[in-house]
Write a structure and sequence with these properties.
heterodimer; A: 89 residues; Alpha-Beta Plaits; four-stranded antiparallel β-sheet; 30% helix; B: 570 residues; alpha/beta; Rossmann fold; six-stranded parallel β-sheet; binds thiamine diphosphate; binds magnesium ion
Chain lengths: 89, 570
Amino acid sequence: MDHMLHIELDHAEGAVRRVLGVVEGRGFEIRSISMDAVQAEAASMMLCVHGRGPGRDPDILKRQIARLYGVRRVGPDQLATARSGETRT
Amino acid sequence: MTAMPAQPAPDVTDAPQPAAPRTGARLLVKTLEGLGVEVIFGYPGGAIMPVYDALPGSALKHILVRHEQGAAFAADAYGRMTGRAGVCMATSGPGATNLITGIANAYMDSVPMVAITGQVASGLMGTDAFQEIDIFGLTLPVVKHSVILRDPAEIPEKVAEAFRIAESGRPGPVLIDLPKDVAQAEIAAPLDHPRRPWPKPAAPEAASIETANAMIARAEKPLLYIGGGVSRAGAVDTLRALAARAAIPAVATLQGLGCLPTEHDDFIGMLGMHGLKAANLAVQESDLLICCGARFDDRATGQLETFAPNASVIHIDGDHAEIGKLRRADAAITGDLVTALERLAPQRPSIDGWRGHVAALKREHALSYDAPGRGVYAPAFLKKLSEAAGDSFVAACDVGQHQMWVAQHCRFSRPQAHLTSGGLGAMGYGLPAGIGAQMAAPDATVVTVSGDGSIMMNIQELATLRRYRTPLKIVLLDNSTLGLVRQWQELFFEENFSEVDLFDNPDFAEVAEAFGVEAFTVARRDETDAAIDRILNTRGSILAHVRIDPMENVWPLVPPGRSNAEMMEA
Ligand SMILES: Cc1ncc(C[n+]2csc(CCOP(=O)(O)OP(=O)(O)O)c2C)c(N)n1
Ligand SMILES: [Mg+2]
């Protein structure tokens, strides 16, 4: 199943690599990706991810991303669902 | 899991200091001094030379290792001993890549560390310059955080932040990459960096603790499952108080050993692949696992689906992301571990029958030391050594059979008594870790327990030992083989012994002596007591080269992929 993730993060050097590394490293494939620099120091990423094989829990992935230093928020939220056009968690 | 700093460093936030222009490198050194850093393990080279230029005359004691991997392992052990980030430093390119195994080791075992690497000048980054390696990218999966210092003015703030991240919450390694031009730039930046104690982690939710306490009150066969998170959170005393109050039987992971002293009445032993049979059986029978700072690692659980099949789980961890990762938690308590353990089990559950049963299991499956033969029996040797050394004993292990024997047979008075590469299982850890530990705790009886395979992975650090006159003791258990691999080939690969024979090892006592380290060889069991006496009564460093039977195995053992209920025995 595809899962949408909406991630708000400090727009610091390496921040994007760090998030994508966790997604891939924790066993998820990235199906689509978009990113806006919302303000000068904050960025907003939208990812559609898909677990490689069974047992990959997107809820745990979210917490693994959320614990990264510089990540402000992880979730599906209004923005994520509006952009993806459907609600998937 | 929060590292509680052993001693608060002097407060350096008071008066704004006059901002005389200085180089970025000098600013870094000043910042480290201000943060209370005392020791740096490192090795110089081109891109980091500005920092080495700023070192002489500083309050930092630099320990020159002989391989950067040794610096990272030593810093790791320093971090485990003190709860404060151990610091290692290397140049760009090969110096930086040589640190990676040690950084990964700290990451896997949640050890506070700050690794500083030189980098080529900013303008050259991305051009494949001489000794340019993207160490920031290479280490991303094995650091808690990392930063490239782009602006000399931000050095004090970013470096202080690196220490805060490394030491607070669930500790881990933080990499600081310093381009050479930033290190050389002249800057008039004020020194301003808030220092320890770091902010406390959030208190756990009262409701989750109530749920857990209700589960404990109902349970008939509760068990504490203790992991490394307890000591990383500075919660050892709290856990001991809980154990005294609640009298619930306990097992520990490799990293959790020592949280309860080995001889504690309610402590059964290590669980898992090379755990005690009684510990594994108790877990399998228990109806409530109270997991304190452990992460259901496969070496502890065996086949996950069959692990503790009758148990509900209370999972207590400082790291929210661990909850439910491998085993569903029926109750989860996240946040400050100290507060959580303080509030857990206010009343002693009435479980006398279960305690009696566990005590009987422990007696029935006690380890025995009456091995046949006249050669040195390593388990007995290690047990005696740890008991003779007493509460000041610290084992710094390498990886292999000898490592498992240490975990199974040594007496640990505290978690810092057992430094072992658990998550990564990195051969080569033992010798540099012993050096780092001894420097962190000069009065401790630090003993590196190594194997003939492992010691060769960082044998060059004997030179470091000699240079600093570090009084580290080394017990080298020499079975002329990569014993643990040989054991697996014997048991699980139809005795197809492939590339494990180390018959042509050098004479290790001679090697040590060539480095200027006193050494002797032990080969007979009746020499055990004299050897232990000599090791413990030597003031300086000494290497005991202990020859043991190559065919000796580690027992008991859960075969890979099998249930912990199915332990093989000798
Ligand atoms: C760096 C590294 N390489 C390979 C291994 C795989 N490995 C695990 S134990 C072991 C044998 C260790 O031999 P030795 O140090 O002599 O210890 P013994 O098992 O004989 O006590 C090997 C090769 C490892 N853990 N680490
Ligand atoms: Mg060996």
